[in-house]
Amino acid sequence: MGQNRPKATDLLAWYDVHARHLPWRARGGRKPDPYAVWLSEIMLQQTTVATVGPYFQKFLNKWPTVKALAAADIDEVMHAWAGLGYYSRARNLHACAQRVAEDLEGIFPDTEEGLAELPGIGPYTAAAVAAIAFDRPATVVDGNVERVVARLFRIEEMMPPAKKIIREKAATLTPEKRPGDFAQAMMDLGATLCTPRNPSCPRCPWETVCQGRRAGNPESLPRRAPKKERPVRYGTAFWAVRSDGAVLLRKRPPKGLLGGMMEVPSTDWLEDKPVTDVLDAAPVKARWKKRSGRVEHTFTHFHLILELMEARNIGAVKADGVWVMPDKLGEHALPTVMKKIVALAMDDNEKPGPLFKARRG
Ligand code: SF4
To answer: Measured from the CB, is residue 173 less than 6 Å from ligand 1?
Structure first.
C-alpha cells in the first residue's frame, strides 16, 4: 500500500474481512432484496443502526414484501413505527410502498433517477439504494462518509459549505467494480475505525495515503462551527381519566411534528411560558389539579418541558379524541414523549409495564 492515492481495492479487501453483520445486509453471495435495502435506508435516516435493528425485523416479519406493506393500514404502520421518531418518514414509507406496488408492479426502479421520483426518497437514499441493492456506481455520502473523505483528503473548509468539495472528492473514489460493497465499506470504515473521536488509524487500510493522518490532526476534521444551544419550549399536558378508568387521547394533525401520531392532549408548546390560563386549552371541563413532576424530551430543534394537569372521575362528557382503557394504550401509536407523559401520569398500579420502555423518538 505504498501508493499516494486511496485505492478502492484496499478498502474492499478490508471490508471482505471486517464488514459489519447488519440484519439488512445480504450475506453469503446472496443478492440483496431491494425492499429490505430501501426499508433499512429509510429507517436509518436520522437514526442509529442499533435503534433500527429491532424495528427492521418487526417490519419485515409483519410485511415481508412491498406489496404487503402497501396493503397495510396507515395507522398500523404508524403504530409499528412509534418510537423511531421523524414520523413523516413512516407516512412517506407507506406512500412509497403503495406507488411501487400499484404503479410499478411491486418492483423498485434500479437507477438513482427512478428511485428519486418516489415519495420519501431524496438524493442520498436514491444513491444508497441504487448502489447497495443494484450495484450501481452511485456515490453515497452520509455523515460517516463525509468524515472519512474530509480526513482522507484533509479538507479544511468549514461544514456545511465543505459538503460540496467532499462530494466531489468522494465521487473520485467510487469504483466501477463492486460499487455497492464499496459504499457499504465506506460507511463501515466511518462507523468502526474513522470515528469522530480517536480514530483507529493504525488499523485503517488507507493509513498510508490519508492526508489528515499524515498531518496529525484527523480528529479535527471535518471542521464545524460550535453547536448552538437548543431553545427550550414549555407546555402543559392534560391527563383526563373517566370514571371507568379510560384516559383521553387524541390524534395529532397529519402534518407537522409527530404528525398523525396519538397524543395526550396538551397546550401548544411555546418558547415563553404561557401567561394565560392553561385550562383554556384543557380538552374537557373538569376539576383539574396540577401533578408534581414534569416530562422533558429533546427533539432535533428544541428541548421540551411539559407540566402535567390531571382530572379523574370524569363523567360522560363530549371530548375531542378517544377514550382508551390503560391496558389498551399499547395498541395506539404513541411517540416517546407521549409515553413519558403516560409513565408520569399513571399511578403505579395502573402502569402497563413493558409497553412503555423509553426509546428516543
Ligand atoms: S487513516 Fe485514520 S483518519 Fe484517515 S481515513 Fe483512516 S481512520 Fe480515518
So the answer is: no
The residue ranges of the chain whose pLDDT is under 50 are 1-2, 354-361
The atom of ligand 1 lying closest to the CA of 221 is 3
Q: Which residues does 269 contact at the CB level (< 8 Å), separation at least 6?
A: 233, 234, 235, 302, 304, 306
User: How many structural domains compose the chain?
Assistant: 2
Are 13 and 140 contained in the same domain? yes
Residues tagged active-site: 41
Q: Does ligand 1 lie within 6 Å of residue 101's CB atom?
A: no
User: With contact defined as beta carbons under 8 Å apart, do 58 and 51 qualify?
Assistant: no
Is 2 within a domain?
no
Q: For position 300, which CATH number holds?
A: 3.90.79.10
Residues 199 and 266 in one domain: no
For residues 124 and 141, the answer to whether their CB atoms sit within 8 Å is yes
Which structural domain, as residue segments, surrounds residue 149? 8-220
Strand partners, 259: none
Give the number of the atom of ligand 1 that is nearest the alpha carbon of residue 207: 1
- Is the C-beta atom of 152 inside 6 A of ligand 1? yes
What's the distance, Cα to Cα, between the start and end of the chain in Å?
A: 44
In a domain, 225, yes or no: no
Q: Ligand 1 mean position to 204 CA, how many Å?
A: 6
CATH code of residue 46: 1.10.340.30
Protein residue with its CA nearest to atom 8 in ligand 1 = 194
| pLDDT tens-digit series, residues 273-309 | 765 788 889 999 999 999 999 999 999 899 999 999 9
For the entire predicted model, the pTM comes to 0.77
Asked if the structure places residue 1 within a domain, the reply is no
